[in-house]
Automatic annotation (TrEMBL):
Monomer. Residues 1-11 have a biased composition (Polar residues). Keywords: Kinase, Nucleotide-binding, Transferase. It comes from the Eukaryota. Residues 1-34 are annotated as: Disordered. This is adenylate kinase. It comes from Datura stramonium.
Length: 296
């Protein structure tokens, strides 16, 4: 994913040997030299990489130069990550931090659905028909949207972070049939009592759209506090029902990705939670890194 930064190599000091005086021509002599190679961007050489050198051939004409080419090139497949978390688990915040550091394309099924409807695409029109009569959008429509986005040039080049999807084993199976297999499935785990407290204390400022929390992120002024509203489903009773549905869905999906699942304790601060995720992603990058040689 990242490539090496500028590297200075130790000189290989040696002078070309003069051909011995003989009527029989001597074999060509190699002439090494010291090279400073610059590589793109600012990433440093990883610990699992090795430097290679290639000897390039024959003693050149008097004004020419034989050379040794040193190179380091690291080519890694882009990361493909899925992340899941219950309502109020902090998944949205972690997605922002992941995409900011790793440059992955953030893909959320809900965002795709809204964008397709707004654009008036064929999939969007089909989805809107179901939503207008209060029905869930069929899996095949949503999976098609997700598939097309995962196949986008930016997703293929940069890698992707699939947010909160798949939510069922049937969706996971459909993605697998389309050839989409994540490298890592991140599951944010937060105790139910903390999740309930986070949800029930949330408030919305209808003027600015900013989300507050009565305990963790209270409004700045009394004026703002008086106009805050609570979402109709941010009650203890309803959030517990949502959590129950979430847990059932996650259990079904985990069976598909159990060998690549990383469970993260989401109870701490956003920095503490991200440190766990960052560690897992760094390990994955190192594992997937591939080293090649630069040849001139």
């Amino acid at each position: 994913m990242a490539s090496c930064s500028s590297l200075n190599f130790t000189a290989i000091s040696s002078k070309p040997q003069k051909p011995p005086s003989s009527s029989i021509s001597s074999p060509p002599v190699q002439r090494p030299f010291t090279s400073h190679l610059s590589f793109s961007k600012s990433s440093s050489l990883h610990s699992d990489q090795t430097l290679f050198r290639t000897h390039c051939g024959i003693l050149p004409p008097p004004n020419g130069a034989g050379f040794v080419v040193f190179g380091c090139a690291r080519k890694a497949d882009p990361l493909r990550i899925m992340i899941s978390g219950a309502p109020a688990s902090g998944k949205g915040t972690q997605c922002e931090l992941i995409t900011k550091k790793y440059g992955l394309v953030h893909i959320a099924a809900g965002d795709l659905l809204r964008a397709e409807i707004a654009a008036g695409s064929e999939n969007g029109k089909k989805a809107k028909e179901y939503m207008d009569i209060g029905k869930l959008v069929p899996d095949e429509i949503v999976v098609t949207m997700v598939k097309e986005r995962l196949n986008g040039p930016d997703s293929q080049e940069k890698g992707w972070l699939l947010d909160g999807y798949p939510r069922s084993s049937s969706q996971a199976i459909a993605l697998k049939e389309f050839g989409f297999q994540p490298d890592l499935f991140i599951l944010l785990e937060v105790p139910e009592e903390i999740l309930v407290e986070r949800v029930v204390g949330r408030r919305l400022d209808p003027i600015t759209g900013k989300i507050y929390h009565l305990k963790y992120s209270p409004p700045e002024t009394e004026e703002i506090a008086t106009r805050l509203t609570q979402r109709f489903d941010d009650t203890e009773e309803k959030v517990k029902l949502r959590l129950q549905t979430h847990h059932q869905n996650v259990e079904a999906v985990l069976s598909m990705y159990k060998d690549i699942t990383v469970k993260v304790n989401g109870s701490g601060s956003k920095q503490e939670v991200f440190a766990q995720i960052d560690g897992a992603l760094t390990q994955l990058e190192q594992k997937q890194g591939k080293l090649g040689t630069v040849v001139a």
